[in-house]
Amino acid sequence: MSDGEVFPVPKAWAQKAHMDAAGYEAAVAEVETNPDAFWTKVAGRLDWMTPFTQVKDVSFEKEDFHIRWFADGVLNVSVNCLDRHIAERGDQPAILWESDDGLMARFTYREALAEVCRIANVLKAKGVKKGDRVTIYLPMIPAAAFCMLACARIGAIHSVIFGGFSPDSIAGRIQDCDSRIVITADEGLRGGKIVPLKRNVDEALKSCPQVTDVIVVRRTKADVPMTEGRDAFLPDLKQGVSDVCEPEPMNAEDPLFILYTSGSTGKPKGVLHTTGGYLAWAAYTHELVFDYRPGEVFWCTADVGWVTGHSYVVYGPLANAGTSLMFEGVPNYPDHSRFWEVIDKYKVEIFYTAPTAIRALMREGDEPVLKTSRKSLRLLGTVGEPINPEAWLWYHRVVGEGRCPIVDTYWQTETGACLASPLPGAHPTKPGSCAKPMPGVKFQLVEADGAVITGAASGNLCITDSWPGQMRTVYGDDQRFFDTYFSTYPGKYFTGDGCRRDEDGYYWITGRVDDVINVSGHRLGTAEIESALVGNENVAEAAVVGYPHDIKGQGVYAYVTLKADVHPTDILEAELKGWVRREIGPFAAPDVVQFAPGLPKTRSGKIMRRILRKIAENDLGNLGDTTTLADPAVVEDLVKNRHGA
Ligand code: WT7
């Protein structure tokens, strides 16, 4: 197979980057020959209160399963992200903020530290202690980063929930980690529209009686209902509070945060990351992949409600003494030049976004890009889903004027930070490939039965050894952690992704091989959407699959069987889409609802998703063997009534 154009490493990059091709080979070799020395350097970039003497202590084997890194070291994440930069860079902006409505704010390291300490003291006054879980449901405002760091300062575990999630989703996450305290805002503002954050929290808390305190950040200053004795505005709580707060000494393996993510089955998993390994990995990859130097203006467009926002809006850039731009808005408001105008306004040097945004903007033509300068840009990045070569080339030629390398970064919520990406000074780029694993990350392709694949071929992507940013468990469910990631291929971490390796040893992620779909870079479990659908009184059964979507990457295709006396109507179709919006969040709403008198099942009652996927993809010549179906006629009906058929 030909992989199309290859873009060489520009000479200036090879000369100046943190890591060139030889440096990459040397690092990969050192991981083999002297792993402790290699990993000690990776973690040595952090300031430790008590230096670690143990490095890696890991077994993926069932009998002795454990993952520990730098386990006797003691540190504090907020000190590493703030205090240690004050002497040299106290007046440098740590966070720049562009609001939805075009206002600008900046916080220097000194100001950020003071604010984080105040919030930390507010939390302490509320009785929050080391190990307590704090739920954060905020818009993309600097306070979100400050609240995360305030938790880290006192050793509380934050659980950030993306502002697009519904009250039901919030409640499930609060209950799962038994969080007693919630930080939210009066309202959010996105694309000129109000997001009723406080109202959503109020709704969620009807089923979370354990929550004693709700801290409300002022964003729009709208009048919102406040529950006496439970709710308070942050500005009021901060009155007279000290801007000094002693950092809690944390063991490297103490939890830093929980972040809920969708899996192929069951309710969302609380992915748990710890202190030392996570921060070291976020900082190391941020420096290497983006060839980052302190003070450069770095813009990652991800929301802090997703892992990308955790690692590359907050923790990675701040650990590296960076200037991180937070953006509250959306790419198409007030018009399609917004991203590029913001780049000019803040002289952004490194820009990191999702393929879905690139595809949506590409559709608007070159003009909205070309009317801006973008001359500050020197590097572009993508994350979250495979990027089609057409979008990659447009990003490279039009946005980056052919002068900015593109780093296609592949990773997962579970992996803490980047797993694979071209390094701009080391690897020629190929549109659509995430190139090579980070030094220390050991990829392996296997057949479905586990047989190891070598050379240029496709298979399921596993990782054979640990890296410091690896998740440590599913909160409260060690067994589920092991079963989900380490039982399919014993002794290995299974990513859930399919992948091809080419003749140059480059990796090409082909997408999930489980029942997880990726809609506009948002990860969704089909089982979750199905469970929302069957919660509707009209629905008897539902099966959800992904299908290729020009802009979103994948769209949500729902097959729905109605209860016996319910008739399929357009109104009901719209109602079900709205239902999922409200139950999970707007981004999970089905693009297509197809009413089906029956679903294709095996004689043992298992839904044959393979067939449903083919029909949704309109790959009708390829339905495969349908003879094992309990009722083959079901498929004929599905094909005949296919949406767009
Ligand atoms: C899944 C993880 C990466 C953090 C944000 C998403 C897909 C991610 C790429 C990429 C192809 C990618 C994978 C992965 N994915 N990055 N560069 N190329 N696919 O994290 O929500 O945990 O989703 O996103 O399928 O498993 P997430």
How would you describe this structure in keywords?
binds 5'-O-[(S)-butoxy(hydroxy)phosphoryl]adenosine, alpha/beta, seven-stranded mixed β-sheet
Can you list the strand order of the major beta sheet?
12-11-8-6-7-14-15-24
Which ions, cofactors or small ligands are bound in this entry? 5'-O-[(S)-butoxy(hydroxy)phosphoryl]adenosine
Strand content: 15-25%
Report on the biggest sheet: 8 strands, mixed
Stretches where pLDDT is under 50 for at least 5 consecutive residues are: none
Rg, nearest Å: 24 Å
**Structure annotation, total helices:** 20
Structural class: alpha/beta
> End-to-end distance, in Å?
32 Å
Give the total of beta strands: 31
Relative helix content: 25-40%
Brief write-up:
32% of the residues lie in helices and 23% in strands. The model has no long low-confidence stretch (mean pLDDT 96).
Word description of this protein:
Belongs to the ATP-dependent AMP-binding enzyme family. This is Acetyl-coenzyme A synthetase. Its cofactor is Mg(2+). The modification N6-acetyllysine is found at residue 606. This protein is α/β, with parallel strands linked by helices. Helices cover 32% and strands 23% of the residues. The strands form eight sheets. Strands 12-11-8-6-7-14-15-24 form an eight-stranded mixed beta sheet, with helices on both faces. The radius of gyration is 24 Å and the shape is globular. The mean pLDDT is 96. The protein binds 5'-O-[(S)-butoxy(hydroxy)phosphoryl]adenosine. Residues 261, 307-308, 383-386, 408-413, 434, 495-497, 509, 511-512, 518, 523 line the site of 5'-O-[(S)-butoxy(hydroxy)phosphoryl]adenosine.
